Amino acid sequence: MASFSNFLSQVADSLISSGSGLNTGCKLGLSCAGDSITFPVAPPNFEVSNTYNNGTVNVNNLGDINMLGKRGLVTIKFSSFFPAQAYDGIANDVPDSPYTYVDKINSFAQKSQPCQLVISNTKINLNVTIDSFDYSEKDGTSDVYFSISLREYRYVLPNSNKLNNTTGLGSRVAEEQKEKVINWYPGMDLMDVAAQSVGQFFPIDEQDAKQLSVFKTLVKTKNLKVGSILHVTKQSIQIDDKTKINF
Prior knowledge:
With 247 residues, this protein is an alpha+beta fold. The chain has helices at residues 2-18, 98-109, 190-198, 204-219, and strands at 28-32, 35-38, 46-49, 55-59, 63-67, 75-82, 115-119, 125-136, 144-152, 180-183, 229-232, 236-239, 243-246.
């Protein structure tokens, strides 16, 4: 029970310092290569960092001027714990072993594939890589406390001949995958699903048109709902191994 008291204290401190916590009923899901976890205890807050790579150039007779850059990669950090027993108001059911979550997150980090992070009731729905994952035990209850840092992953397709406007060089090439698995978490909408469906299969300059086309098709599709698992290729989407949509 010491762990429960400690966690409530951490929640209170976080709410006081930040002025707000996560939305009521907020859930965090992390998936990779067809496997997924839902964090049993939502963190009291999370931190999103955006960079825009602006630069400073010194010009004769003018001094320093600010040069606008392109956006960098979004990073997301949060901390919580994996409970080893049920706690009223936090983890009502006896959860999986804390180290089941630890092992799965470590396996995600080593799959050489990006993950997908979804935080329900927010705009967070990103392909990410796991930059760091630290965990520890503190109070003899077998609860495992953790901190995780995630960074946005942006797909660039092998067959894209689009040159970088700044460097004049060809785009970085990502390894082409034949299939992507999408878990439709609460908080996602059809446009999110459409965006993820085309994100790694088409060059950047084709993605907007493909996304709109896929969205229109999904709107008309039966048996598609929150909780569905979609197997996506460049040619089709298969829903829960039943309905198949051809592009």
